[in-house]
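ESCALATION

Customer reports they have been waiting on this structure for their group meeting. Please prioritize. Original submission:
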Amino acid sequence: MKNLKYRTPGSFVTSAARITAPLLAVVLCATVAQGHGWRRGEHHLRPPQVPAGLEVPAGNELASHATGGGSQIYVWTVNPTNAALGSWVLKAPHAVLLAGHEDERDDVVGIHYAGPTWQANDGSKVIGARVNAVTVNPDAIPWLLLRAASTSGDGALTDTTYIQRLDTRGGLAPTTPGTTPGEEVLVPYSAEYYFYHATQ
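Update from on-call: job pushed to the front of the queue and completed.
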């Protein structure tokens, strides 16, 4: 088993059980929860204000919004030509997606994982490709604009064209070096995700 570590602002704890149990719970909850779905016309979704470079191109409209909470997983990677050099490399996110509406915050509507992939409870998926990034908070991972590289399934995310990752909190790579090549660290984070589709 890999040497997994969970990093919080004030501690650095090693415990495989502490990692695998919550992650399993995330997957199970996201699988069985039905929620209220992604699109609620009565909420009159409005695109958020974003920094220059993160605007979604004309011809697309906001379809849904979800709040993501989980971990950014980093791997300690050593330079193959110089063992003295190493860095934390992002492996994948691992998060639960909650309904983005104030009256539905407890509804699990999907999960977010490697790809980066967003998967709704109905099985539909979108894999994103980064278009641009802006650092808004130096203590958190950047805000992103992503385009849909591919979609699958028949559901809420099938026709996604763009995704924005905004209002990020936490998730930055550790500032202290790892101890062994391949060591993994899970850093807590949260973000708001906005999903767009082509204007009908």
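Sent to customer with the following note: The radius of gyration is 18 Å.
Escalation resolved.
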